[in-house]
Amino acid sequence: METDDDGVVAAARAIRPYLAELVGPTAADSLDRRLADLLNRAPDQPETVTRLRALLEEHKDTTGWFLIEALADAPQYRPPYQQPRYLSRQTGGLALPAGDPAPIPAARFSCRDGDYVWYRPEVGAPVPDCPTHHVTLTRT
Q1: Where are the alpha helices (DSSP H) in 78-137?
Q2: Residue 39: how many CB atoms within 10 A of its CB?
Q3: Tens of pLDDT along 58-94?
Q4: Which domain, by its residues, includes 46?
Q5: Which end of the chain lies in a sparser environment, N or C, as judged by fewer CB atoms within 10 Å?
Q6: Among candidates 117, 124, 123, 121, which has minimal Cα distance to 138?
Q7: Helices H, strands E: what count in the chain?
Q8: DSSP-assigned letter for residue 58
Q9: Is residue 123 in some structural domain?
């Protein structure tokens, strides 16, 4: 059974590709290093989860918002930008085509070392390397 701790760790992994747009490039570099360090130590330890949560809650309107939205998406803990309720708002009031209007979920890719998760924003977008370990992400 998934716990809130699992969600905090999942959100910390998933937020990393979005940090520059959430907190700006300068703050993103520092925050990304701190998140990666914690995720590579012992992400299943209660003190690590507490520190990850504190880091994400430092910027209440950006990374704190991301954490709240990811936790609300239990048990998948997707970034807000990949959740159906967020994606459905992107239609801009346009009529949806007939059939199932649910968005198709983005492909999820992870670092084999477990500290980085990336969602393909569109078909054909190249899969990046993990910024920590410099290995190609694999589809999960």
Answers
A1: 84-89
A2: 21
A3: 999 999 999 999 999 999 999 999 998 776 555 555 5
A4: 4-85+103-139
A5: N
A6: 117
A7: 6, 3
A8: S
A9: yes
Strands, sheet with 138-139, edge to edge from the N-terminal-most edge strand: 117-119, 108-110, 138-139
Q: Which residue has the tokens 């967020």?
A: 86
- Give the pTM: 0.84
Q: Domain for residue 70, yes or no?
A: yes
Residue 90 lies in a domain: no
Is 93 a member of any domain?
no
Q: Residue 119, class by beta-carbon neighbours within 10 Å (0-12 exposed, 13-18 middle, 19+ buried)?
A: middle
How many independent structural domains does the chain possess?
1
Is residue 90 packed enough to be buried (19+ CB in 10 Å), middle (13-18) or exposed (0-12)? exposed
Q: Which ranges in 16-93 belong to alpha helices (H)?
A: 19-23, 25-41, 46-57, 65-72, 84-89
